Structure formats: C-alpha cells, structure tokens
Amino acid sequence: MNVGVLSFQGGVIEHLNQIKRLGHIGVEVKREKDLGIIDAIILPGGESTTIGRLLRVTKLIEPLKEKIRKGLPTWGTCAGMILLANEIEDEESKYLELMNIKVRRNAFGTQKDSFRTHRIVNEISEEKLELVFIRAPYISEIKGNAKILCKLDDKIVAAKQDNIMATSFHPELTDDLRFLNYFLKGNWMKNK
C-alpha cells in the first residue's frame, strides 16, 4: 500500500518510518501528481497555519479536498486535525473544511505544557495506548456523522467521520504501531 504523508513541514519522517515498519511504502506528498499514486494520506502535526498556507501556495488544497471527498482514507494528527476541521474556535480562517468538528488550537497549553498519558481506545485496543500531546488542539464540538474515538477527561481528542480520522495526539512519536495499523486496515471506515 502507498501511504502518503503531506510533506511540507512537521512530523513527516516519524510517520514515514512507522509506515515502513508496517511494510508499506511511504510517499512524500508535495504536489498534485503525488496524490495519484497514494491509497491513503496522513496530515502530520506541525504548524497548521504554515501547512495551510503551503497548501494554498502550491495549489494542492483543492485537489487534496477533492481526493478526500471521493473517499481517500485520511488521518490528521494534531495540526492535521486543525486542517480537517470545519470550524476553528475564535478564528475565521479554515483550511480543508472536511470534518464536522470544531477545534480549539493549542488547547492544552504551550510547548512546555506538552505531556504523555495512557488511555484505552476501545476501537483500537483493549490495552492502554501511549498518547503524546504537544501544543495539542482538542475537539470542542462534534456534529453530524462525526463520532468520538477517544476522550481525555471531558475533552475529545480523537474522532472519525466516513473516511477521515483525526487525533489531537501523536502516535508517530511512540514505538506503538497499533493506531497506524488501525488506520491502514480501514475497518473503521466500515463502521460509519
């Protein structure tokens, strides 16, 4: 399977390394032609404003939106979640606007407030997963057919909708491949 990673900025290498560890081919997505050879895509963490600006500058935003609308399995981690959201709290700017969620940017604090915790995410494993939060957003509101995958206290930190999944945290910064494996198997899309 060819798994794309949007490769403008952020946690690109970490995702590519995990894709390779699962025996798949990682593809750096930087141009429209790269979209033609992938079976799934990951929108990594990083600076959502920068990534969003580069999506517009490279004219990749519309072709990417169209490919995702047509069913391309898509996973946004941290900044990727912000890119996918229909709404960003206290901001008018939006990016892909494909997921029925409202997000709060940097909701867990600054870089120095980054942390790790462990939670069971029932759809993925009966055992606890390590969750790494770095200046992470969270979902403050979920609408329509979007469904909650994981909460941390009362905050939604993972959700899915049709062929799209989003997490506030960074599974690529752990050695655990269960979240990536769950995404790539695609069974979660059958449970829309």
From TrEMBL:
It catalyses: L-glutamine + H2O = L-glutamate + NH4(+); aldehydo-D-ribose 5-phosphate + D-glyceraldehyde 3-phosphate + L-glutamine = pyridoxal 5'-phosphate + L-glutamate + phosphate + 3 H2O + H(+). Keywords: Glutamine amidotransferase, Hydrolase, Lyase, Pyridoxal phosphate, Transferase. Pfam families: SNO. PROSITE patterns: GATASE_TYPE_1, PDXT_SNO_1, PDXT_SNO_2. One of its GO terms (molecular function) is glutaminase activity. Its EC number is 4.3.3.6, 3.5.1.2. L-glutamine binds at G46, E47, S48, R105, I134, R135. InterPro entries: Class_I_gatase-like, PdxT/SNO, PdxT/SNO_CS. One of its GO terms (biological process) is pyridoxal phosphate biosynthetic process. Pathway: Cofactor biosynthesis; pyridoxal 5'-phosphate biosynthesis. The active site is at C78, H170, E172. Gene3D superfamilies: 3.40.50.880. GO terms for cellular component: cytosol; glutaminase complex. HAMAP family: PdxT. NCBIfam families: PLP_synth_Pdx2 (TIGR03800). Belongs to the glutaminase PdxT/SNO family. Catalyzes the hydrolysis of glutamine to glutamate and ammonia as part of the biosynthesis of pyridoxal 5'-phosphate. The resulting ammonia molecule is channeled to the active site of PdxS. In the presence of PdxS, forms a dodecamer of heterodimers. Only shows activity in the heterodimer. This is Pyridoxal 5'-phosphate synthase subunit PdxT.
